Amino acid sequence: MKLNTGKNLVAGGLLGLVVGVFGGEKPNILFIMSDDHTSQAVGCYGGRLQSLNPTPTLDALAAEGMVMENAFCQNAICTPSRASIMTGQSSAKNGVPTLSETLPVEKHYLPQEMKKAGYQTAMLGKWHLKARPESFDYYKVLEGQGDYFDPVFYEKGVEGVDLKKKNMYSGFFTGKYKNYKGVVPMEGHSTDVITDIALDWFENRRDPEKPFFVKLHFKAPHDYFRYAPRYESYLADVEIPEPHNLHDRMNNGSIATRGVDDELLEYLASSIGDRHYIRNFVIDASPWRDKLDRSQSEEALRSQAYQEYMKHYLRCVKGVDDNLKRVFDYLKKEGLYDNTVIMYTGDQGFYLGEHDFIDKRWAYEEGMRMPFIVRYPKSVKVGRSQAIVENIDYPATMLDFAGVETPEKMDGRSFRAVLETGEEPEGWKQSAYYHYWMHLAHHWNPAHIAVRTKKYKLIFFYGTGWQGESEPTTPPGWELYDLEADPSEDNNLYGDPKYDLVVAELKEELKKRRAELGEDDAKFAFNAVIDDFWDYDEEDQKRARQISAQYRAACEKEKAERAAKKAGQKKSK
């Protein structure tokens, strides 16, 4: 049995200091993150999928630890969320607000601080921050987004090989090949392979004389879900419960997300049904496209697409949960389980048909909320907490367990005290901030900012991009939700005079949080638009209606051009 005592972390005179401060032992820290694993698909969070028992391993972990009910990301997209967890900073400060930027090694604050504290560090699985994680003692990470089957990796200290193979996005849909350089190819499903890598690290690379800090990141269940063949029968004969707002968005949204009289519904936000004319899981459902019966009614077709979507997603989730059991069983066998702070999360939330949405990006609950479970029986209380925490707080919390004070350059704060007492310390934050920058990218979501308290959420869609554009291309609009009365955000209350005072208070909180996080810097052109439409008076609303009409006209033109191009391609064949 290998026990980590942490007694060889430092030498000579410093040893007494470490023993005095940390009781002679530092905990190991295992931070596990799955891509797009939303809280709705974790059993301990309840909801319509709980009866399917999708995550028994995670639920067992939660039963012995703390479940954070109000954990949120500040920017619900893969790369920015990962950058915030590495830096403890907002997207505005760390310079990674979209999928396009690189997080340079000098900003890898979390592993740098862990190494200073004597930890052996490793980054395993999906990285997705471009510059390789050289800040870790060891890494073996997916190339880019990574493939579900037979993935290739970059490995520290290994030269790798050059090869050509189909990848997730080109080969899966077009049959084209991609050239890879200096990679380590592996066979099997990515979730199994990443777990194999982790177990190999624990068995053959871990220094038993040091505490470890390991980031274990799964690719699954990222969309275009592909599961291991052994899960083909899982849920095959089960009718997956539908969200109550799959077929009726009710009063969710605003002119910013629907247009005047819903004139933009088919042009904004990818969908489960065929509402969005380009990206939806009726026409864009490659793994199951041939299964769909297109002679059905619109509602029936949407329901069928939803069933396939959910079964593929949950089979990927099942693969993650089963592989976590392999990891936890190993830790238990080696006597490491109870001396390891285990944290589990997703890189953001994800939509499972709510409001007929897919993907993430929105500030609505399903996208902004993250699952967050922590088990450490030596100090973490068993229970559930309503304290508001953000992904920028995660690194400070991990460092706190390692005995490291939060660096001044981090925006986040440690919530270790919340985990250990179940209570919020005096002066704890009462709001979560959100900013989606990637205006109309990939899934046609308008850019927006938001602030969420325990009772309300205020969202402002400002309708312009992040690359210097200073005029809205989609209509600006505000939304307000009473989360106690309307937890599924089906009724936008903005403009109701009864909530004028609430709106005024939330706008002040939004201003305050934006200033704290460097989001209101004049160097960002969109701030001029935000200021311009902040009051949203009658003149602002008139302009928003005009922009709605303009955007619809532009979309109709593009739609016609796409149809003509498609017809020409068919004719040429």
Explain this structure.
This protein has 573 residues and is α/β, with parallel strands linked by helices. Helices cover 31% and strands 16% of the residues. The chain contains 15 helices and 15 strands. It has helices at 14-22, 56-63, 78-87, 91-94, 109-116, 171-174, 190-205, 255-258, 298-333, 365-368, 394-401, 416-421, 500-516, 526-532, 538-572; strands at residues 28-34, 66-72, 120-125, 138-142, 152-155, 161-165, 178-185, 212-218, 340-346, 372-375, 383-390, 432-436, 448-452, 456-461, 477-482. The strands form two sheets. Strands 6-7-5-4-3-8-1-9-10-2-11 form an eleven-stranded mixed sheet, sandwiched between helices. A hairpin with a 3-residue loop joins strand 13 and strand 14. The longest helix is centred in the middle third of the chain and has 36 residues, at 298-333. Residues 1-23 have low confidence and may be disordered.
Strand-helix topology:
Elements: H1 14-22, E1 28-34, H2 56-63, E2 66-72, H3 78-87, H4 91-94, H5 109-116, E3 120-125, E4 138-142, E5 152-155, E6 161-165, H6 171-174, E7 178-185, H7 190-205, E8 212-218, H8 255-258, H9 298-333, E9 340-346, H10 365-368, E10 372-375, E11 383-390, H11 394-401, H12 416-421, E12 432-436, E13 448-452, E14 456-461, E15 477-482, H13 500-516, H14 526-532, H15 538-572
Helix pairs in contact: 7-9
